[in-house]
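[agent] plan:
  1. take the single chain provided in the ticket
  2. run structure prediction with default settings
  3. attach structure tokens to the ticket
  4. add a short note for the reviewer (M.T.)
[agent] executing step 1
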Amino acid sequence: MDERIIPPVANHGTMKNYNLTNFMQALRRHAPVSRADISRLTGIDKKCVSMFSNELIGAGFIEEAGIETVSRGRPGSLLDFVPERNFSLGLAVQADRINCAVFEFPNTIRETRVYPLDPDMSAKNLVDAIRRAAQELSRTVPRLAGVGISYAGTVDLRKGIIHSSANLACLNKFPFREPFRTLGLGPVWFEQSARAAALAESWFGQGAAAGNFASVELNIGISVVMVNQSGLYHGPEGFVGELGHVIVQPRGRRCRCGNNGCLEAYMGEYALKEEMRAAGVDPEELFPCSGDGTADAAPHGKAEKILARAGVWLGRGLGTLVNLFNPDSIIVQGDLMRFADTVLPSARKELEKCCLAEKLMLTTVTPSRLLLPDAMGAAALAFPGWFEGGFDEALSEK
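[agent] step 2 finished; step 3 output follows
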């Protein structure tokens, strides 16, 4: 039986979502699989398993795919996903780009694209860019189950507004639901960018094997999402995980948020590019607009020194996570992980200075292996109820 922790306060709706999540986990990991085996793997009673199966078969997401082979008893029919049926689109809005992924559930990324953005663009132009990207990518698959959109910033899912986005000014006070009620590509779901990336890491990356982990996103801003067996932590209002605004140098550099000495002021992408330009290094060669963070690179000279120094600042920020939460693993995402072999050794050395030794010895720090995890996680949102709860409700087409 799945040992995940059930929330302490649960009504019929939360219990159904919890069971449906476990049902989909078992199906994704073991398909083709019988109803009886799903019940055995998850602890969900057979009546509930049959109900979920019938609902998803009726919706065309799964199908009966043969008969299981058994040595005794009556064989049951096997459940599997319908090929060429479960497509979704994820769009992750970052400060200077839209990361996009076309996803075929349960495990396949069919296509990825990156659309550059002007950081000074208006909200209307941003909406137009998102809509164009969605329409273009929707034509690459037969049909979509829906669309997931994630945004960087303080995203209030309940009120449907982005309170602030330090790195993309047009998103400040942006009502993110309204412009997409008539997108015409199925239900539209929303999340905050770092949580979408953590979701992808939890399901498809190294987080799937971790008991609890911290997903750290390094881009223009720096965010962290804590994930344990209960799922992603959202907090009361969803305004959590601003690791970039942890003070790592008292009375230090001025940060874009208005404070001094924030981690982002030392190793956010803007800060690193500025430091490189001041040292005579062309940052555009090191940080192309790709967003994947997966390419291996070996910087030399001044660039290597700047990146190694960034690792020191990262270590100070991560030290807070280790001392407070002691995760099994810290998984680091973002463009800076192109240079993981330069950045992470410096980060680990600094962690040794910042953390209690008995805590640090239990925590690994590794770069993500996922391509565009923020977009991949956003695409997963289009399968409501199949993943951890807490996401925004779908917008019904009108």
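[agent] step 4 note for reviewer: The first helix runs from residue 12 to 30.
[agent] ticket updated
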